[in-house]
Design a protein that fits this description.
The complex is a heterodimer of chains A (117) and B (111). Chain A is mainly beta and 117 residues long. Chain A has no helices and 11 strands. Chain A has strands at residues 4-7, 10-13, 19-25, 32-38, 44-51, 57-58, 67-73, 76-81, 90-97, 106-108, 112-116. Classes of the chains: A mainly beta (117), B mainly beta (111). Chains A and B meet through β5 and β10 of A and β3, β4 and β8 of B.
Chain lengths: 117, 111
């Protein structure tokens, strides 16, 4: 169990386009989901924590109007990169934590490679 | 402070040998730790976890050791195989807070 599906796996689009990435927990409910950004050969950088039914909590330096997060159900969170530019090109990864406790592992999706031309 | 690194240490081991990957964590109040494995182009995969009331935990071919005195975590992989080649991240969690990930270590298994 504990499968997280992330879609799409790869996006290539023109500058100025808005891109939506979906994160689904397939076999469990996740009150909390997390969005990370990862640069080549670096660790995961937490962008925001997504809570079902409430506003996301963004890390310092992450523009909430640039990276819109919606967590409308216990199995789905979406990240929308608005008016994306080449500097937004990166590997975006989501994770989900099972409902029922904070001290539980996060389960990760397989990431979305975003390339802005 | 946060344990986010800007470089990626590399460990090379011969196939069949044991691997030891180390991690220094930053928060003495952290009470839950996880090792993740990340293959190229994929998301991190849960390997094993340990809580702060334990010093050692074993899984299939993997062992995690926790030394709270020096805030050190290690992952031991027995009889390393080519499929073990990946980047390994430790993550620490202070109950109720987010996980903080270490800088990662790239494990290369030599034939």
């Amino acid at each position: 169990g504990a499968v997280v599906s992330q879609h799409p796996s790869r996006v290539i689009c023109k500058s100025g386009t808005s891109v939506k990435i979906e994160c689904r927990s397939l076999d469990f409910q996740a009150t909390t989901m997390f969005w990370y950004r990862q640069f080549p050969k670096q660790s995961l950088m937490l962008m925001a924590t997504s809570n079902e039914g409430s506003k996301a909590t963004y890390e310092q330096g992450v523009e909430k109007d640039k990276f819109l997060i919606n967590h409308a159900s216990l199995t789905l969170s979406t990240l929308t990169v608005t008016s994306a530019h080449p500097e937004d090109s990166s590997f975006y990864i989501c994770s989900a934590r099972k409902t029922g406790g904070d001290n539980q592992p996060q389960h990760f999706g397989d990431g979305t490679r975003l390339s802005i031309l | 402070g946060e344990s986010v690194g800007l470089h990626l240490p590399t460990l090379s081991v011969q196939e069949g040998d044991n691997s030891i990957i180390n991690c220094a964590y930053s928060n003495s109040a952290s009470d839950y730790f996880i090792w993740y494995k990340q293959e190229s182009g994929k998301g991190p995969q849960f390997i094993i976890d340990i809580r702060s009331n334990m010093d050692k935990r074993q899984g299939q071919r993997v062992t995690v050791l926790l030394n709270k005195t020096v805030k050190h975590l290690s992952l031991q992989i027995a009889a390393t195989q080519p499929g073990d080649s990946a980047v390994y991240f430790c993550a620490e969690n202070n109950y109720g807070q987010n996980f903080v990930f270490g800088p990662g270590t790239r494990l290369s298994v030599l034939p």
